Amino acid sequence: MSLFDFPNEILLEVTEHLCPGDLNSLLRTSHFYERLLTPRIHRLALEEKDGLTALQWAAVKGHEPLARLLLQKGVNINASRNGWTALHRAVRHGFEGIVALLLEQGADASIKGTAGMTALHWAAFLGNEKVVRRLLEMGVGISTEDNFGKTAAYYATLRGNIAVVKLLG
Questions:
Q1: CA end-to-end span of the chain, whole Å?
Q2: Residue 30: is its pLDDT beyond 90?
Q3: Separation between Cα atoms, residue 56 and residue 19, nearest integer Å
Q4: What is the mean pLDDT of residues 105-115?
Q5: What is the dihedral of CA 15, 17, 22, 26, to 10 degrees?
Q6: Partner of 7 at 20 to 30 A CA spacing, among 21, 104, 115, 125?
Q7: How far apart are CA 106 and CA 128, in angstroms?
């Protein structure tokens, strides 16, 4: 007897006990399993992981297809955990594609996270010229101060990120 012979209800019950990676592998084996299991994998994608919202997790891991799916499902793009939004996390981890996606989908780049730092503060601190440029194109204010009265230009200067200092100047 093969798995195809079992009723869908039994197959769905069995998949409740599979880890996401195994579930994903199974759904890739046939069109039947893909149709049956895709809604389950989408439900899993919406769950919190490691204390992060699903979108933040996608931002940390650089998983652009998942981020796109979550945004299509209507998740809160500006949800915060421990003072960090998905945009903060994507900037912090250097995933420019996810930063661009989040900004295109309306992420609020002016939200202050830990210590009052915005996404621009982090991009300047890390010397990510492309992200700084993208944020400036979106109209992010360069004079925004963190909780210590420091601007993004201060952090770029502190770290010796000359190209970013010039962009912010």
A1: 70
A2: no
A3: 20
A4: 94
A5: -20
A6: 21
A7: 21
CA distance 159 to 132: 15
User: What is the average per-residue pLDDT within 3-23?
Assistant: 79
**Burial profile 95-110: b = 16 or more Cβ within 10 angstroms, e = fewer:** beebbbbbbeeebebe
Do 169 and 134 contact (CB within 8 A), yes or no? no
Listed in sequence order, the DSSP H helices in 28-142 are 31-45, 54-61, 64-72, 86-93, 96-104, 119-126, 129-137
| pLDDT at residue 128 in the model | 97
The residue whose two tokens read 């992420």 is 107
Beta bridge partner(s), residue 81: 84
Asked if residue 157 has pLDDT above 70, the reply is: yes
Arithmetic mean of pLDDT over the chain? 89
* Separation between Cα atoms, residue 88 and residue 80, nearest integer Å: 9
Q: Residue 77 phi/psi, 5° resolution?
A: -65, -25
Q: Which two tokens stand for residue 100?
A: 């661009």
Tell me what pLDDT residue 50 has.
66
Of 104, 43, 122, the closest CA to residue 68 belongs to 104
pLDDT score recorded for residue 9: 84
pTM value is: 0.76
